[in-house]
Amino acid sequence: MSQRKGVQNLKSVMEKLREEGFIVFDVSNQVEKGFPDLMVVMQDKVSFIEVKGPKHKLHRHQKEVHKKLEESGFKVSVEIVGE
Predict the structure, then answer these.
(1) Cβ 18 vs Cβ 6: under 8 Å
(2) How many domains does one find in the chain?
(3) 80: pLDDT strictly greater than 60
């Protein structure tokens, strides 16, 4: 997947979540390597979403960061988008 397509996919997921009433932050380039792309807030809950194209898999460092977040009580999910 090209970087351009990845950005389009990320924006698509953000738009969908915002339409559902979530507050969404793109943190994909703002924190440590492996951190999920989006931070999502609804009422008093914070969760994280990794956006992937259909042919892409989680890298080892992403799995490690996701596990740490989950162990800290956060929900982490992977959203597969695109062709």
Answers:
(1) no
(2) 1
(3) yes
43 φ, ψ to 5°?
Answer: 55, -115
Tens of pLDDT along 20-70?
999 999 998 888 889 999 999 998 899 999 999 888 899 999 999 999 999
The CATH number linked to 56 is: 3.40.1350.10
Angle at the Cα of 80 (from 47 to 1), degrees rounded to 5?
120
Domain that includes residue 46, residue range = 3-80
